[in-house]
Specification:
Strand content of chain A: 5-15%
CATH class of the largest domain in chain A: Mainly Alpha
Shape of chain A: globular
Largest sheet of chain A: 3 strands, antiparallel
CATH architecture of the largest domain in chain A: Orthogonal Bundle
Helix content of chain A: 55-70%
Order of helices and strands of chain A: HHEHHEEHH
Number of helices of chain A: 6
CATH superfamily of the largest domain in chain A: Winged helix-like DNA-binding domain superfamily/Winged helix DNA-binding domain
Distance between the termini of chain A: 36 Å
Oligomer: homodimer
CATH topology of the largest domain in chain A: Arc Repressor Mutant, subunit A
DNA sequence: AGATATTTGTTCTATATCGAACGTTCTATA
DNA sequence: TATAGAACGTTCGATATAGAACAAATATCT
């Protein structure tokens, strides 16, 4: 009788709860205009503005269908602008708007608060170890995905 | 300058990839009729059949809205049956059908295969340590959710 | 140069998820 | 015992997600 592993289930549930708690925090901080998922799309842009669709897709680890949809939402809400490239007219670049830059700082506050909650029962050493595992696992899964030609990598 | 933590992002992405890989495995094993999410709902039932909506909700960690929706799907597909309780007519019990019991074994095969892939770069000791962290984290988040009266706990 | 193949981002369809509003049934209270 | 309140599961509306099909643009091959 093999030992029952449940990493997948645990991860799924942790993610669900975190998302809910995070969205709740956003509400508490009056950041209703932005969701956790939208934050994840903007995060790479906050680190480097004006990047290509492909780069953003890679950083946010989303399928192109999802990213396109999220960009629709963000553009409607006035957070980003799509800019068609001149050299290759198939491609677009994504730029933050001024409106967005105001949000950024507030979002970071929430993000920090979230990390506090997330790791409140963990020591520094444990966090490092845990995130080390997570990173190894993610890399390994990305590898598997590539081998199986899954699309959204 | 605070150290940048990214547990939330890592977890979200690990979960996304696992889900895709898992759904792909289900396809490979000709288990098209069931999805990863459906499996997660049936898993508690495989351990103990004929449990209440509330117990299943607790075990699967889903909101009642989502569970109701998933039960619709599973009932349509002939995997489960809702049974209205006689004592308390508000409540229902969930029962597996014969059809489902055939699936179960196949599903476990896929599940084991998934665990193999998931942990292929981890030693036994590391898996135990990692899942220990995950369980602690999940418990801690459940605690936070309760304190904030989030609904789907 | 022209034909074919590939790449890019969008759109369509389906799934899973949640919160809020709802009707039904049970419980407690006045 | 009648009624107000609570609990239960469903339904509705919205969000985030991916795969497949698509049109436009570019690259490759003969």
């Amino acid at each position: 009788m093999e030992k029952l592993r449940e990493g997948g289930f645990l991860i799924t549930k942790i993610r669900q709860l975190s998302q809910q708690i995070f969205n709740n925090l956003l509400k508490d901080y009056n950041l209703n205009e932005i969701s956790a998922a939208q934050g994840r799309v903007m995060f790479p842009l906050w680190q480097k503005d004006n990047i290509s669709f492909q780069e953003l897709k890679r950083k946010a680890l989303l399928s192109k269908a999802t990213l396109s949809y999220m960009l629709d939402k963000l553009e409607e809400a006035g957070h980003i602008k799509r800019i068609r490239s001149e050299e290759d007219k198939r491609t677009i670049n994504i730029k933050l708007t001024k409106k967005n830059k105001v949000l950024q700082e507030k979002y970071f506050q929430v993000s920090n608060k979230m990390n506090e909650i997330f790791y409140k029962d963990f020591s520094e050493k444990e966090i490092n170890e845990f995130e080390g595992y997570l990173r190894r696992l993610l890399d390994s899964l990305i590898q598997v995905s590539k081998e199986n030609k899954l699309k959204n990598i």
